[in-house]
Amino acid sequence: MSKVFKKTSGNGTIALYLGRRDYVDHVDAVDIVDGIVKVDPSGLNGRKVFVYLACAFRYGSDDLDVIGLSFRRDIWIKHIQIYPATNGSVTKTPMQESLLKKVGEQGCPFSFQMPTNLPCSVSLQPGPNDRGKACGVDFEVKAFIANEPHNPDEAINKKDTCRLIIRKIQFAPANKAGPKAEISKQFMMSDKPISVEASLEKEIYYHGDPIKVIVKVNNETAKIIKKIKISVVQLANVVLYSSDTYTRDVCVEEFDETVGANSTFEKSFQVTPLLASNKDKRGIAIDGRLKDEDTNLASTTLSQGDKEMLGIIVSYKVKVNVSTSSGGLLGGLTGSDAAVELPLTLMCPKPAEVTDVIFDPIE
Question: Which residue range forms the structural domain that includes residue 317?
Answer without folding.
Answer: 180-347
